[in-house]
C-alpha cells in the first residue's frame, strides 16, 4: 500500500476543517477552494478540530509576535493547509513560507492554486513572478514543494531552492505527520534541524497517551485504513513527546494534552462554539482530547517562556 493511505489523511483532515468552518467554528475564506464536498461530522470531531486549529494558532501568533517580519515558516506535511493565505489576510509579513508534502499532494495543491484566481492573486501580490513545475511552485515568499521528509538530502536541496536562511527565526509546524514516519527518520530530521538552524520553534500536534484501550481503538482504526503508525513509540505520553526533542539537540520542550489546551482557550470563544451544536457525549470528547497533544521544542531561549496560558 505504501504511502497512499497516509496521503489520504490530508483529504480527511481538510474535509473535517471545511465542515467545521461551514458550521461557524472559525473563519477560513480559503479552505473551500481545496475541498468541495463534505459529509457532516460528529460534534466532538468539530470541537476537536476547533481546539487543534486554535491551539496551534496561538503559538503561531506568539512566534510571529516575537520574530516579526524576519520570521520563516516551514510547514511539514502541509497538505491543503491555508495558513499562508489567512496570515496574508491578517496583514502578517513573513520573509519565507515553505510548505512540504509528498509530491502527489503538492502537485494537487499547485493545480488548485493555479485554477483558483483568489489563491493565486494573493501570492502574486508579494511578487509578480510565480513559477510552477509538476510538483512545486515558487514565488517571492511562498513555496510549495514536493519531498519525502525521510530523505534529508532532498529536503536540504528543496529548502535551498526556497532560499531558506538558517540564521533567521524559523517556525516548524507539524500536525499528525511525524507519527507516520519511522522513529529513526524523525530523529534524523530533528537532529538536522537543531544542528542547522540557529533559532526556532517547533509546534507538533499529534496523538499521545496511546497505551490504553481508547488508544488501541484509535490505532486499530488507522491501521484498518492502511496507515502504518511507524512513529507511534513517541506517542506513548507527554514525556515521550518532549523527549523526542530533548534527545535530538533541542534545548527545551513542553507538552500539553488537548484537555489543557482547550481549557486555555478564550472562554468567550469556547462559549460561542459550544452553542453551535449539542454535544451528547461529553465523555467521548474528553477521551479524544486526552489522546492528542501539542508539543513544542525550541532552539534558543527566545521561545523558552512560551506556554498555552498567555
UniProtKB/TrEMBL annotation:
Belongs to the methyltransferase superfamily. LCMT family. Its EC number is 2.1.1.233. GO terms for cellular component: cytosol. S-adenosyl-L-methionine binds at residues 52, 77, 148-149, 175. Keywords: Methyltransferase, S-adenosyl-L-methionine, Transferase. This is Leucine carboxyl methyltransferase 1. It catalyses: [phosphatase 2A protein]-C-terminal L-leucine + S-adenosyl-L-methionine = [phosphatase 2A protein]-C-terminal L-leucine methyl ester + S-adenosyl-L-homocysteine. It comes from the Eukaryota. Methylates the carboxyl group of the C-terminal leucine residue of protein phosphatase 2A catalytic subunits to form alpha-leucine ester residues. Pfam families: LCM. One of its GO terms (biological process) is regulation of signal transduction.
Amino acid at each position: 500500500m505504501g504511502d497512499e493511505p497516509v496521503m489520504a489523511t490530508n483529504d480527511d483532515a481538510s474535509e473535517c476543517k471545511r465542515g467545521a468552518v461551514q458550521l461557524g467554528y472559525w473563519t477560513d475564506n480559503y479552505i473551500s477552494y481545496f475541498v468541495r464536498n463534505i459529509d457532516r461530522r460528529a460534534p466532538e470531531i468539530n470541537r476537536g478540530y476547533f481546539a487543534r486549529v486554535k491551539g496551534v494558532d496561538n503559538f503561531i501568533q506568539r512566534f510571529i509576535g516575537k520574530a516579526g517580519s524576519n520570521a520563516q515558516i516551514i510547514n511539514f506535511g502541509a497538505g491543503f493547509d491555508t495558513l499562508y493565505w489567512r496570515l496574508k489576510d491578517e496583514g502578517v509579513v513573513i520573509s519565507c513560507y515553505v510548505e512540504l508534502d509528498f509530491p502527489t499532494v503538492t502537485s494537487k495543491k499547485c493545480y488548485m492554486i493555479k485554477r483558483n484566481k483568489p489563491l493565486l492573486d494573493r501570492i502574486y501580490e508579494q511578487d509578480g513572478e510565480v513559477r510552477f513545475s509538476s510538483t512545486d511552485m515558487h514565488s517571492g515568499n511562498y513555496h510549495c514543494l514536493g519531498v519525502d521528509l525521510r530523505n534529508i538530502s532532498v529536503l536540504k536541496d528543496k529548502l535551498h531552492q526556497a532560499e531558506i536562511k538558517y540564521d533567521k527565526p524559523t517556525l516548524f509546524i507539524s500536525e499528525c505527520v511525524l507519527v507516520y514516519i519511522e522513529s529513526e527518520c524523525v530523529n534524523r530530521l530533528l537532529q538536522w534541524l537543531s544542528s542547522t538552524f540557529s533559532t526556532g520553534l517547533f509546534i507538533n500536534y499529534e496523538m499521545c497517551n496511546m497505551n490504553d484501550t481508547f488508544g488501541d481503538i484509535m490505532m486499530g482504526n488507522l491501521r484498518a485504513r492502511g496507515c502504518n503508525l511507524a512513529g507511534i513509540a513517541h506517542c506513548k505520553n507527554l514525556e515521550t513527546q518532549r523527549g523526542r526533542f530533548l534527545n535530538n539537540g533541542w534545548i527545551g520542550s513542553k507538552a500539553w494534552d488537548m484537555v489543557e489546551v482547550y481549557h486555555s482557550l478564550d472562554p468567550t470563544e469556547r462559549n460561542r462554539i459550544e452553542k453551535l451544536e449539542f454535544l451528547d457525549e461529553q465523555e467521548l470528547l474528553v477521551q479524544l482530547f486526552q489522546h492528542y497533544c501539542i508539543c513544542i521544542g525550541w532552539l534558543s531561549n527566545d521561545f523558552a517562556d512560551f506556554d498555552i496560558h498567555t
